[in-house]
Write a structure and sequence with these properties.
Order of helices and strands: HHEEHHHEHHEHHH
Distance between the termini: 30 Å
Largest sheet: 2 strands, antiparallel
Number of strands: 4
C-alpha cells in the first residue's frame, strides 16, 4: 500500500463514495507526465508540418542569418547518437523559440512539437500503485480510519462498527438483493 493512495483516499472527494466507486474513480483519474521524445517523432512532426523543409533551405543558404541555427537543428535531429530529446531542457526551449524567431515554424507548430512530450496516463500507474479494487480501497480506508480513530479516541468497537456499516453500504450499493440497510 502506497502513501500516495492513502493521501489520495484521504481527500474529501472520496469520503461519500463506496469502496467500489472510490476504486473506479481512482482508476479513472489521469495525469499528464512529460517524457523524452524520440528524434524520429520530431523528424516526422517537422516533415508533416512543413518546417523541416524551411530549415533545410536555410541551412543551405549562406546569406540566411539563421543558417547556423538551421545547421545545428538538422545536426541535432539527424544525429545517430541522439535517440531522444528532453523538451524541458533550457537549450531545447531556446531552440524552439529561435525556430519561431527565424520563421522556420509558427508558435502553434512549436507548441504542437513541445506537446509531443506530454503523455497522459492513469494516476495509479504514475504512482506505481496498479489497478485498485474495492477490497484494496477498503484496506486503505481501514488504515485511514484506524489512524483517525487513534487521533479522536475511538474505541475498537467504534472502528469495527464503522467498518461493518461501510461494508454493508458497499454491498447494498452493488446489488446484494438480500441486504436491507
Amino acid at each position: 500500500m502506497s502513501q500516495a493512495l492513502i493521501d489520495e483516499l484521504s481527500k474529501a472527494e472520496y469520503a461519500s463514495l463506496s469502496d467500489q466507486a472510490a476504486a473506479d474513480a481512482i482508476n479513472a483519474k489521469t495525469v499528464t507526465a512529460r517524457r523524452l521524445v524520440p528524434t524520429a517523432d520530431i523528424v516526422a512532426h517537422a516533415t508533416m508540418n512543413g518546417y523541416r523543409h524551411k530549415i533545410t533551405i536555410a541551412a543551405a543558404n549562406a546569406s540566411n542569418p539563421c543558417q547556423g541555427l538551421a545547421i545545428d537543428i538538422l545536426a541535432y535531429i539527424d544525429s545517430v547518437k541522439i535517440q531522444n530529446v528532453d523538451m524541458d531542457l533550457p537549450e531545447t526551449q531556446e531552440m524552439l523559440t529561435a525556430m519561431v524567431q527565424c520563421g522556420f515554424a509558427t508558435e502553434q507548430q512549436v507548441a504542437s512539437l513541445d506537446a509531443l512530450a506530454n503523455r497522459t496516463l492513469r494516476w495509479v500507474d504514475h504512482v506505481l500503485a496498479g489497478t485498485q479494487s474495492a477490497h484494496s480501497v477498503r484496506v486503505i480506508r481501514d488504515v485511514i480510519n484506524g489512524a483517525t480513530a487513534k487521533r479522536t479516541g475511538w474505541t475498537q468497537q467504534n472502528v469495527d462498527r464503522y467498518n461493518a456499516t461501510q461494508a454493508a453500504i458497499d454491498a447494498w450499493n452493488h446489488g446484494d438483493p438480500d441486504l436491507v440497510v
